[in-house]
Amino acid sequence: MYAVLSVTDKSGIVEFGAGLRDLGAAIVATSGTARLLRDAGTEATVIGDLSGVPEMMGGRVRAFHPSVFGGLLYRRGNASDEDEARRHGIPRIDVLACNFRDLVGNDGVAGALDSIDIGGPAMLRAAAKNFVSVLPVVDPADYGEVLLALEAAGSEVAAVDPAFRRSLAAKAFGRTSAYDRSIQRILERAGEPGE
Questions:
Q1: Per the domain annotation, does 194 fall within a domain?
Q2: Residues of the domain holding 104
Q3: CA 32 to mean position of chain CA atoms
Q4: Rounded CA gap, 73 and 75, in Å?
Q5: How does pLDDT run across 112-140, given as a tens digit for each residue?
């Protein structure tokens, strides 16, 4: 079991990462989150170690790889997906913790465009789409409940209460929707004084 952690709001992530590790998860994280976890004593590798491709272009490209998106999207129990995952070395990612802040545009449109998170929302959408097999965790307030649910389910996502999995997916899609709206508002304001 792999857990991918990519968070802007790092509150509770050290404890969550340690809890996932205690449940047998291999922790993979973006560079800043991995450093924080390692400094706190939790073994974590960076996403580039999973994909075999380093972060590029100032961190703009780091998660876009079949090892990440295949691991989030492949349908467990689907013979064709399972075969492709095996043949291509796609890991089984069971948990994705990912969050990001709305953009406010204080640096104008150019600054806002440079700050848009592409990979985080894309990973979150992938995990939420496959909530039958992956827990998409967007809210640090849910970390404790996720750990308890995984512990009760013997670390098997499929054994976690379906209603809980669905609620995490709904929250994830709600978050990506709000994030996109924050970008839309900035672009619609373009041309106003100070932009």
A1: no
A2: 2-189
A3: 14
A4: 6
A5: 677 788 889 999 999 999 999 999 999 99
